[in-house]
User: Fold this.
Amino acid sequence: MLHLLPRAVDIAARRFPEREAVRCSGAFLTYAELASRANGLAQVLRYQGLKRGDRVGIFMNKSLDSAVAMHGIMKAGGAYVPLDPFAPTSRVAFMIRDCGIRHLVTTDLKLDQTALLAEATGELSHLIGATNRDGYECLAWDDVRGATAADPPDIELTEQDLAYILYTSGSTGTPKGIVHTHRSGLSFAVWAAETYGLSCEDRISNHAPLHFDLSTFDFFAAAVAAAATVIVPEAISKLPASLSGWIERERISVWYSVPFALMQLLERGGLQDRDLSSLRWVLFAGEVFPTKHLRRVMAALPHARFSNLYGPTETNVCTFYHVPPLPPGLEEAIPIGKPCANVESLIVDGENAPVKPGETGELLIRGGVVMRGYWGRPDLNERGFFRRRVFNDQYEDVFYRTGDLVRLIPDGNLKYLGRKDRQIKTRGYRVELDEVEAALLSFPGVEEAAAFPVPDGQGSCLIEAAVTAKAGSAPTGPAVLNHVSGKLPSYAVPVKVEVLASFPRTSTGKIDRRKLQERAGAGSEGEPKQQVSVIAEGA
Amino acid sequence: MDRKTELMEFVKEELLHGRKSDLRDDEDLLSAGIIDSLGILQLVGFVEKRYGVQVPDEDVVYENFHSIRALADYLGRN
Assistant:
């Protein structure tokens, strides 16, 4: 029975042992190799004292080894926690402490960051993939790679066991851990493998980093279908012309990314000179794909079908929309579609009462794909769910509150209309503006701070900020920027911080963020390449 | 200021905001994730504006952009 995520690898290894499972930079593992190495790592972790439900960090660049780590950790009964290898040290250290990570899978390269270990302290005791670090039990990769086993450790696990935790921006100033179980991960992976007709012939790109939920499709839907996951090498993932050549060379059949990456491929990828006819599906998620740009990408890749996947990290993916041909002149955004199998949606007003069809309300989601909850945050777990009493009050149905405003349109699809709160998407990354402001306010000379989105000219947005000085201090924009880049991931760092004498105010005395936004956004809408110059000039 | 120093200043100050003061000119900016996709765009924009050159899309590849030294060499050739 397929009730655990890594079981998908075992099943694939029995049916297609010699098929490619994961490929990265010219090297690959077959399903038989992936299964036996993941079993070996799981045995090692158990030997090191890992218990059911323990959290294990993965702190390294994406590679064959990190794919082994994901499955090996889950086979050992642990939950893997992907830590952004490029995030500021203090942020990664927070996550290690927050969910009590004792085992960290890493590489010596990353352990140059001794500062991380000093800051993480907490319960961290085992370093897998590291050599000779005083105070820690270490095991070198050569030994880990040599450890293979025919079977995973014999332990009791159910579909409700923890599988992975993804950290995302939190409005109180620190990131929050979204806990998924084997059930919620598999609910999505099995649905995706069926819906996109994945098979062992498919070659699925992995563009997203492991801490970004898009990666669960790339690895788990692929494993369910015994398809190959082809990891985009870090060195070329930001270079559109290299990336389009890579898609051609690797004969990628299913591409999945945020719209921004596709926009980059279109603008600078030289698609007209490539043979990308191997692409049969182009999937995108993370933010709204402006119709005028999407139409151009579709025209440039005529062999592929396009599908929009929607869902906060808390629900994996919960609705989807296969994009039909887009008539010229259509400007309206495409819908987010209909609920996936095993998902129920509800649109409610401010009193949690269902709205009439066609009215706008908050989207609530229930079903197999929904997370177990936030790690160690009873406050968020209370607020984040709506419990509806059913059957004469005897039972309750639990819905996750997405915070997204939607309405049902006449063709039965859901239309996304914006957020209830101050969360934004920048280049597909989810950022709580409150977290950015908390980072700005932690600079000693800053009195008040406001962060706000400005259009980037490519259908997404960038973050700008303004601050005022405390009496007797004179903070400068660059100094504040230096400070916040030590706290926030690079995509959440404002492109500009302005120091103002005073803020514009609303009639109730609050900071008028809309006015700041209008002022900053004036004249910034333009062609993408001009926009680049504007940024460089302002920088 | 020579080109390499200017590029170094731009990357350190405007892209990294002082996060990595010990950046070397042969350090791999891409494999190590030192600059992100927005950073690449900003770097191309800066180069085009500062040196009055057009960087064709097919030149924005690893060979030319992986380090400050590689980028300075590329600009020297073009």
Summary: The domain at 340-419 of chain A is CATH 2.30.38.10 (Luciferase; domain 3). Chain A is about 30% helix and 25% strand. Residues 523-539 of chain A have pLDDT under 50 and may be disordered. Chain A has three domains: 7-237, 340-419, 423-538.
